[in-house]
Design brief:
mainly alpha, 361 residues, 14 helices, 68% helix
């Protein structure tokens, strides 16, 4: 029994190392190509967003694939992290002149606030399941976005001031500054996000998610996904583990939000950028990559982010081709005959969907 357990652990470690290795290898290849001048400015501008979408896809897969609950409010947690991290950075630019330390603390701040939002949202909504859970999480995501959309936050020597009307209602002193400008969002955040930091955060996200999946906690979460009644019958606290997975997923979305807000200081982190379209796009990455398949989520996020830009030269036909690719990949991932083809030619692991708790154990 112990030999089988040791063999399973070594197999898991090998799979994890392959996933880490693929990310590191991709980073090295891109760096070499950039130093050789073979990467266009358009692709360079997409490198940090690629890292953001990978983190979002992997973190959402923790809720959708591992926990087995459909969440459509992931962009809301990203929004909370983005604004919390951006506010922290803007307020501490003079107090913490070291950019690396300030950005690290901003990441922790964004993750903490997103986790808190995940707890507040998760406590009531995780009692639901299926379509009801999806609708309620979508509503919460829109509520978060619209609440931030009407907030005007300013700061002067007297402290912070909040208004729900406009910036003039803040009553700031002449030397004061408006931090959140309502629908205009936040501008002027430090441009601390880099491709290296993005890849580093992807590795941290993978480390957290993969170790959680293969731990006792992860097996408990997957047992709830496979059979909630059976999990309750053996003493598993369903509410505790569901809330834990949901909170970790929300916290990692907050990290992606901080990375987004610090990417281009000349662009605003606007609430409208975190609407349901963003949540649906992240869910598309998860579904096309394979529900429960972390490596597939990474590949899907990268391919589907790069594809529209690589097809830009085709003008009017690029979105048509993009839609056709989505349909083909969906058929290849979920059609029974295509599944038989993948098993026959050894492609099952790459496009694998969620496994049962028994297989993971």
């Amino acid at each position: 029994m112990s030999r089988m357990k040791t063999k399973a652990m070594s197999k898991q470690m090998k799979n994890n190392l392959i996933t880490y290795g693929l990310v590191i290898a991709a980073y090295i290849v891109v760096e070499v190509l950039m130093r050789a001048g073979m990467v266009s400015s358009l692709i360079k501008g997409l490198l940090v967003p690629l890292c953001i979408y990978v983190i979002l896809a992997v973190s959402l897969n923790l809720t959708v694939g591992i926990l087995g609950e459909l969440s459509l409010g992931h962009a809301g947690f990203m929004c909370v992290g983005a604004f919390a991290g951006a506010i922290f950075s803007k307020c501490t630019m003079n107090a913490i002149p070291v950019a690396g330390l300030r950005f690290f603390l901003a990441l922790l701040t964004g993750a903490a606030f997103a986790a808190l939002a995940g707890i507040l949202v998760g406590i009531p909504v995780l009692r639901l399941k299926g379509d009801y859970l999806a609708i309620v999480t979508l509503a919460f995501g829109e509520i978060i976005k619209n609440v931030i959309n009407i907030i005007f936050l300013g700061r002067d020597s007297r402290g912070f001031h909040i208004s729900l009307k406009d910036a003039f209602e803040l009553g700031l002193e002449p030397e004061g500054e408006v931090i959140i400008k309502g629908p205009q969002g936040i501008t002027g955040t430090p441009n601390d996000s880099t491709f290296f930091i993005g890849v580093l955060l992807i590795l941290v996200t993978l480390f957290i998610v993969l170790n959680l999946i293969h731990s006792r906690t992860g097996r408990a979460i997957m047992s709830i996904r496979d059979n909630r009644i059976a999990a309750e019958s053996v003493g598993i606290n369903v509410t505790k583990y569901k809330l834990l997975a949901f909170t970790v997923s929300a916290s990692l979305a907050g990290v992606a939000g901080v990375l987004y807000a610090h990417n281009l200081s000349t662009l605003a982190a606007q609430p409208k950028n975190f609407g349901y379209n963003m949540s649906i796009m992240i869910l598309v990455f998860v579904v096309l990559g394979g529900i429960g398949n972390i490596r597939g989520s990474i590949i899907a996020a990268v391919v589907l982010t790069l594809l529209p830009e690589l097809l830009r030269s085709l003008n009017d036909y690029r979105m048509l081709i993009y839609a056709v690719v989505l349909i083909v990949v969906m058929i290849f991932s979920w059609s029974p005959k295509c599944r038989e083809f993948r098993e026959r030619y050894g492609l099952k692991r790459l496009f694998n969907s969620k496994k049962s708790a028994k297989e993971e154990a």
